[in-house]
Amino acid sequence: MIDFFYDLAYMLPLNIVSTLTLLTYLGRQENSILGCLVSSFVIILALTLRHTGKKERFLIGGVVIAAMLGLYWVLGEEKRTVLYERFGFLLWIIAIAFICIIVGRLAQDYLWLKIVVSLLLIANVVYLMVGKIEVSGVTIAASWLVILIYLAELVQVGWEKSGYTDLKSHIALITPVILLIFILGCLLPAPDDPFDWRLAKNIWKMTVTEYKRITGYLANRNDEYKYTGFTEDATVAGAVASNGDGKEVMLIYTDDRSFDRLYMGGITFEKFVANGWETELKGEDNYRQFDLLETRAAIAKYNQGYEREYIAEDTIEVESRLFNTRHVFLPIKSNLDTPKTVIPKYKETEENVVTNSRIRYGDLYSLSYYRLNFANEELIALIDSAQAIEEEEWNSIIRKAAVSDKEDCSYENYQAYRNAIYQKYLTAIQQKDGAYEGISPELQAVIDEVTAGIEGDYERLKALSDYLQTMDYNTHPGVIPTKVTNASQYLDYFILESRTGYCVHYATAMTLLARACGYPARYVQGYYVKKNSKTNEVLVTEKYAHSWAEVYFDNFGWVTFEATPGYSVSKGWNVGSKVDASGQMGYIPHAAETETSETAPLDEIPQQEVKKEIHISYIVIPVFLAVFFGAAYLFINQLVTKHKYRKMNLEEKVRFLIQRNLRILKLLGYPISAKETIEEFRGRVVADIESHSEEVTDQRNTHDAMLSLSFLKLYEKLIYSDYECSDDDVTLMEHDYELLKNEIRTRGFRYRFYIL
Amino acid sequence: MKRNRIIWIVLLVLSIVAISFYGGVVSFGFFYTMLLVPVVSLLYLLYVFIFFRIYQYNDGRQIVVDDPLPYSFKLINEFHLPFVGIRVRFFSPFSTINELSDKTEYELMPHTGITRETTIVCHYRGEYEIGIKEVEVQDYFRLFKIKYLNRESKRVTINPKLVLLENLGSFEMHSQDAMNNLSKLDIVSREYIPGDDVRFINWSQTARTGKLMSRDRIGEEGNGVAIIMDSCRYSADPYVYLPVENKLLELTLAISLYFCNKSIASNEYHFYRQLISQLVENKTQFEDFYKQMSSLIFDSANTQQKLFENLLRDEKIFSSAVVYMILPVWSEYASLVINKLSERNIYTVVYIISDDTDIKPHVPRADLVDIIVISPEAKLEEVLS
């Protein structure tokens, strides 16, 4: 049996792989079960014939052939042809099975063949994977089963051990364990898509976030803004302190069709001193809300119902990184009075928003804000010509915007807000005593030249910012000379003399120029975020730190102006663009969606119902023939045996009968062992039979007779001496034979006996 | 094993790469196979752990140090699968199993067993475990192995060895003096019977009586030979205390047996909660003495201070002809007692059981004191001859 299972372990899995692979290549995957059954039957039959005696081999082989011949005969030519057309591939399967038998048998002896087969299997697997060819899981699992069995044998061969180390037994008995891998492998699901590592990524991300949160806190406990680029200090320095990309500051999540440029303001300055800016903004007014409401009111007044052509709402989510700050970075026109904006507890200090406790690594806040569509010329016209907003219009926009605190945003407060802007953001050029300081004639000439022929307020300031952008960008322009003591001198120095600097210089210049032209303007520090259309998140680092100018247009609100070379404000979107499903405007026009008509499904070809006819004779006749053959064989065998027996001399008869009796003893569970003498064997059998005889008292006579097992004594004499047999010995053998047969019946081993 | 693990890890990584880029049964089948191989191997090892049995046998007689004892063990597989790689390791510091290497790996077919018969030699007296200490099991791919302690270990009590000394070097050197000392303490003599040891002929009595007289008992009122053994345990580590205690007992028994064979009475002293002395004059008493020594308990509370203070208080040792001290360490208390013995001209031999050969304590009367350092692993027959 060990040899049988050993061969089976080598041949059957290989056979299954080959069969299923062949069926895949033939495009007959639907016949996989049938193919496997047929090929497995061939393998098992071949192994059974190999591992049985001559008689059994002839019997089994004969039965199978008789059955097949019977089937062949009963089917008839027509049906045989149909069967061949339908199941002709089975001949290939049978051929494959025989090849697997040969290969499996040779692989047992030759290591190189094991390696070749393994490599072929691996190559097949790789080809199926890369070629994305559909194949059943059983094929792959069986391929690995073959390789694992080879590996198990290789490991065993090289392993020096004591005890029972027969290789075939080892493989035959260890294969069920390896089979477990095969079974589990077949049962586990195999998705069509590559593994989604999102969960692992999320876990990893969470781990990294927590680690960075802790280390960031520990590193930045005392130094909030180190290497972030942002600072509360707005000194116009001689050089930019940079650390390459520097720290990660924040991660902004948004829709991929939202902004392409975003100015995230952190701190606003209103007072220019000789070498930079200062701020005294400490009040708690909600100026941002007034700015947004004013702009929306202006748009509503200008062109009712088409707000989205001028201004569009976006939402972003901001995840803080290596920051240890209380400043909240917000775009211009942020809407803080909406459920979409979620910020940790904060307060507004006029223009700035600060949280009550520090924002740490990984902290999230979401923002709703509005961006202006500068691609719409009507917006520019509106900015230039915005008219005073009436109280009724103001109240209307408050209702539309669903402002939560209507009293706080009253029309009176709005007017106070407007007055405050002019007081705070238009004083830099003017001296303290209210006298207009003015700018130099040379600078005025430049302004006049740049803005010549331009009428609108916005276009004039845009022209000035464009003019500044023609100058040189330099991160190390040198310190501002000490002769510069006020805004006018700064402008003269920067625009007429130096003409080089970085964002701080340009933003300062733009702010002061706007004020010189009579427009309230402010200097803002924060981050300039660029995003392309293909991504929906942006990692903001130190290098994104930036400053810019914002200018107030009466009855419209604040507008960002970019004067630094290499930077630009978002252009907006084309008028007429549709809002997408997320409610966002985007900044590229929608491609017109063309409706494709669904093609009507092909009419189903009506299939003729194939009537399956399986006549009872297809089963009965082959079975009858098989049984007939078997019975005939046994009968003939008996006749032949009897004939031979009659021809035997006495000693041959006695030996024949002894062997027969020994076979029955083996059937009864008493095979003679090569390590024991006949006397020891007899003693063992007798002892066991005695224990049985106690249970079955009515068989006492038989058991008593069997206790003698006298034929074994005769057997011993035959082997060890020149004993001459007599007729009495033959009689004794036959008598013992009858006793043994009775014992078989007693123990219920009838069928085994008949097979014997 | 390392090579197989490396191969497996490489294949596992490749399978992870495969499923990261390709879906379907091929890549996932590869991944599952690589993942399930160690899982099934570990399950298999768990089954081996549950169904593997060890039976150990020895013939049940008393175990004596250095005496080969028949020993056998049986490894049984009670499971339906073969056990492909079983290795048993033996307790080796204090015992040796002959003709069997613990590097041998066994394979057991289902419901079969392997029996190995050999002998085991225990090196030290005491109570400790012998035989199979732990089991190491490997899986069929040699990817993993688990080690676990033998749940059915064998704990035995080993009796000390009896060393028959042909001569006791120190005694032979001073035997005449010792014998003279001993004879002074004799009281009882009898007529010489052919066969008596001629050394025990009492010449003074013979001259007096005119008949050949032999001493009947030696040191009846005196103590003959005194053997003082320190029964203090100086270490908690069995690797340290077992060899030392073994040698202490062996030497004590050897000396006592030597004198018993010479019909010279010996009195053994040691301390266990109190001073305990045992007189050995004949073989029967020696057997009792041996049993007592075999079951002697060494304890850190049995200090030399207590031993020698009690001895000095008892004063019986000052009646001895020769005093043998068997100590693991030298102390001032031993020095004190030796000085007192020397004052009484009593010859003293001190055996220090130690690996430190540099021990050379100062004694006032070097002619009356012999100090011999004996290694715990030394053979007494070679050292004391």
Describe the overall structure:
In chain A, β11 and β12 form a beta hairpin. Helices cover 52% and strands 13% of the residues of chain A. Chain A is an alpha+beta fold and 756 residues long. The longest helix of chain A has 31 residues, at 617-647. Chain A has three domains: 2-187, no CATH class; 221-425 and 523-561, no CATH class; 648-755, no CATH class. Mean pLDDT of chain A is 80; it is low at 430-436 and 580-610. Chain B is an alpha/beta fold. Chain B has helices at 2-21, 25-51, 169-173, 175-184, 203-209, 238-261, 283-294, 304-314, 332-343, 380-383; strands at 52-58, 63-64, 69-77, 83-90, 95-97, 105-108, 113-122, 126-130, 132-138, 145-149, 154-159, 189-191, 213-215, 225-229, 266-272, 274-280, 322-327, 347-353, 369-374. In chain B, β9 (132-138) and β10 form a beta hairpin. The two termini of chain B are 53 Å apart. Residues 183-187 of chain B have low confidence and may be disordered. The chains are: A alpha+beta (756), B alpha/beta (385). The A-B interface holds A 125, 128-130, 132, 134-137, 139-141, 144, 148, 151-152, 155-156, 159-165, 169-170, 173-174, 176-178, 180-181, 184-185, 188-195, 197 and B 4, 18-30, 32-33, 36-37, 40, 44, 75, 81-82, 84-85, 104-110, 112, 114, 140-142.
